């Protein structure tokens, strides 16, 4: 508690805002694939494409969002993104056409790809080095507390059979917008030199072309995210074949979130005592093992065991990737680096589509083959990140700070 009191008010506000915003998000978006297939009669592959389009938009949105935040100000990008997000969720609540859902989820991905790198870069900017592990882990914990509460509320109000819950999501994001407008008018954020003059689109592009450590980190994370993305699309579609499958998936979401909160602190010690990169590598391996478990087992208790393994992998990957990127990125280009991690959305885009195609063409009964193939694809990320570690040693890559 004493450490939290030492944090900048903007950091605390973003963490609290993340908690309620993600709670509202998880109340609706995880049920969208089920709603589209069961109510709208959309095929599994097309539902996967609709879910995945937000990540496709994030491929380039994250890069430009990070660049714009470095160039013109992170506060402006965050405020505009939240206001736009408010209207996107109103659109979800009133949409009828399947293609409207496709367009809205694309805009959802655009808002996220601009807001997320800006908020993470701002957290890094206003936080002292010794508090960064705490801040990024609190942010990640806030996401998962929201994920624990949101699906239960969504299940109770019928989010899998109706879109009215999106009105609540819209209202929460509008309140977040008002809160940030008030906060930014009260606190002046210190600028780091003439960063805005140095960050041009040309040198931003050069960063991606010349920074091999960052490039292969992105490739490794794409493979890891491809595996983890099955939790949001392929796994719920597969579980919908079970009796009370929607309810089972809801419980798995809650179990996932609670597990994150329980294991996050001990798992973060791995990154602190070894390295952030080691944690990410082990996380990818655990996600692959968890996916294999979903294919191997059909008994509900073993599905929860598989979910536990996958969740540990999730924590090891996502609680440390922000720390690793913060370590290797220059101070005046953190928005660009965080934003360019949006290219990992290739995994979020391709994963649901690939999983949907497998379910459609191989059949739900071939779950062992489907999840084994998905696990093998994911596990390739381990040797890729092993190469990143070797590359850092060979090139004597400087890490800005250690944990």
UniProtKB/TrEMBL annotation:
* InterPro entries the UniProt entry points to: MFS, MFS_dom, MFS_trans_sf
Instruction: Quote the subcellular location field of this record.
Output: Cell membrane
**Chain ranges passing through the membrane:** 12-36, 42-68, 80-104, 165-184, 205-228, 248-267, 274-297, 303-324, 336-355, 367-388
Source species, domain of life: Bacteria
Q: Name one GO molecular function term.
A: transmembrane transporter activity
Membrane-topology descriptor: Multi-pass membrane protein
Q: What is its main location?
A: membrane
Which part of the chain is the Major facilitator superfamily (MFS) profile domain? 10-393
Q: Which UniProt keywords apply?
A: Cell membrane, Membrane, Transmembrane, Transmembrane helix, Transport
Q: This chain belongs to which protein, by name?
A: MFS transporter
């Amino acid at each position: 508690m004493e450490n939290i009191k030492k944090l900048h008010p903007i950091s605390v506000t973003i963490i609290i805002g993340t908690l309620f915003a993600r709670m509202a998000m998880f109340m609706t978006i995880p049920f969208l694939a089920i709603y589209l297939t069961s109510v709208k009669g959309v095929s599994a592959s097309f539902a996967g494409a609709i879910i995945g389009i937000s990540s496709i938009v994030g491929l380039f949105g994250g890069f430009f969002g990070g660049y714009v935040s470095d160039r013109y100000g992170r506060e402006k990008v965050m405020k505009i993104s939240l206001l736009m997000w408010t209207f996107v969720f109103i659109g979800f609540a009133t949409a009828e056409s399947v293609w409207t859902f496709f367009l809205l989820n694309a805009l959802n991905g655009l808002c996220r790809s601009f807001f997320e790198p800006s908020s993470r870069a701002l957290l890094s900017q206003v936080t002292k080095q010794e508090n960064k592990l705490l801040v990024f882990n609190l942010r990640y914990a806030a996401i998962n507390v929201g994920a624990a509460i949101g699906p239960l509320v969504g299940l109770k109000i019928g989010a899998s059979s109706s879109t009215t819950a999106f009105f609540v999501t819209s209202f929460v994001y509008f309140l977040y917008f008002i809160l940030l407008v008030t906060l930014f008018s009260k606190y002046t954020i210190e600028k780091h030199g003439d960063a805005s003059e140095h960050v041009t689109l040309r040198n931003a592009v050069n960063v991606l072309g010349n920074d091999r450590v960052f490039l292969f980190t992105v490739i490794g994370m794409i493979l890891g995210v491809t595996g983890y993305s099955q939790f949001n699309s392929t796994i719920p579609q597969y579980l919908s074949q079970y009796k009370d499958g929607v309810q089972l998936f809801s419980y798995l979401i809650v179990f996932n979130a609670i597990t994150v909160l329980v294991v996050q602190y001990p798992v973060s010690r791995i990154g602190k005592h070894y390295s952030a990169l080691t944690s990410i590598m082990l996380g990818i391996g655990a996600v692959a093992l968890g996916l294999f478990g979903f294919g191997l087992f059909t008994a509900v208790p073993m599905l929860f065991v598989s979910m536990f393994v996958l969740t540990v992998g999730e924590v090891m990957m996502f609680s440390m990737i922000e720390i690793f990127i913060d370590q290797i990125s220059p101070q005046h280009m953190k928005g660009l680096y965080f934003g360019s991690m949006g290219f990992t959305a290739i995994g979020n885009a391709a994963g649901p589509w690939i999983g949907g195609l497998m379910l459609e063409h191989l059949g739900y009964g071939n779950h062992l083959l489907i999840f084994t193939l998905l696990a093998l694809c994911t596990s390739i990320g381990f040797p890729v990140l092993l190469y990143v570690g070797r590359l850092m040693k060979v090139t004597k890559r400087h890490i800005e700070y250690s944990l």
